[in-house]
Amino acid sequence: MLAGQLGLEKAHIPHVDRHGLVWLDRGRLEVEAGCLRFITAGGGALAARDYQIPHQAVSIVLLGPGSSVTHDALRLLARHGCALAAIGEGAVRFYTAPPLMPDSSALARAQARAWADPAQRMAVARAMYALRFGEIVRTRDIEALRGQEGARIKRAYALAADRFGVRWAGRHYDRADPEGGDLPNQAINHAGAAMTAAASVAVAAVGAIPQLGFVHEDSGQSFVLDIADLHRHDALLDIAFGAVAEARGQPIERVVRQRAARLFRQRGIIPTMIDQIKSLLAQADEARP
């Protein structure tokens, strides 16, 4: 009844035309008179007040620490195809996201077509490496690309360590004991988790398929890892080595999270990831014979 009275059904906006993300924390997401509202006493990114949320004009609401959500709010979001994700401070953790179910499957179908065609799949992988390296990648062999990546990332580690004045003895990572490395290696691990969370938000926001990666293959979030890696050479290392320089005895995971949250907002990391996903898949679709 409320939907009809307020004209919400007619006002429904396709996902392709929506504005992206709304970040909320330390408050209560609820419905009043058919409108989505967020009430906060402040203390986080938002000043204390009662905000009306334009749920028909956004793709995903990111609900940060100290927040709660009512059943009515979930019902309203689901009815209008707006996803809700529980995140850590600044999206350095991605806890859950209901299916986005956008009104168009165009992007997911473009991803599936590109992934299923060996030539297109290689083209997307090369485009991803071109974004990372800042130059045209000529090789068409995925193993050769991975070899180039290994050499470049080693140089990037050393340059970042020098830039922040951090002693660097090389990358050492034991999956069985991720906390066993020195402080820079621990910081890189934590920064990698934060960057993966940001990529999870971006992939969920556009309704892409997490499992269909172009460089990564075996993981259930291969495409998420592909997108996270687009920022491995710059943002991730700035987060990790900057956190080591800032730590001064503080728990390194907390410092990494705080620094990641700041850089994600300052640099618009997640909106950039969203644009990159759309651009990469659009290029692949346009290149189809």
UniProtKB/TrEMBL annotation:
Question: Which residues hold Mn(2+)?
Answer: 149, 216, 229
The record's Gene3D superfamilies line, in alphabetical order, gives: CRISPR-associated endonuclease Cas1, C-terminal domain, CRISPR-associated endonuclease Cas1, N-terminal domain
Return the EC number: 3.1.-.-
| Alphabetical UniProt keywords | Antiviral defense, DNA-binding, Endonuclease, Hydrolase, Magnesium, Manganese, Metal-binding, Nuclease
> What InterPro entries would the database entry show?
Cas1, CRISPR-assoc_Cas1, CRISPR-assoc_Cas1_C, CRISPR-assoc_Cas1_ECOLI, CRISPR-assoc_Cas1_N
Subunit relationships? Homodimer, forms a heterotetramer with a Cas2 homodimer.
Q: Which PANTHER family match?
A: CRISPR-ASSOCIATED ENDONUCLEASE CAS1, CRISPR-ASSOCIATED ENDONUCLEASE CAS1 1
Check the record and name the HAMAP family matching this protein: Cas1
Protein name (Swiss-Prot/TrEMBL)? CRISPR-associated endonuclease Cas1
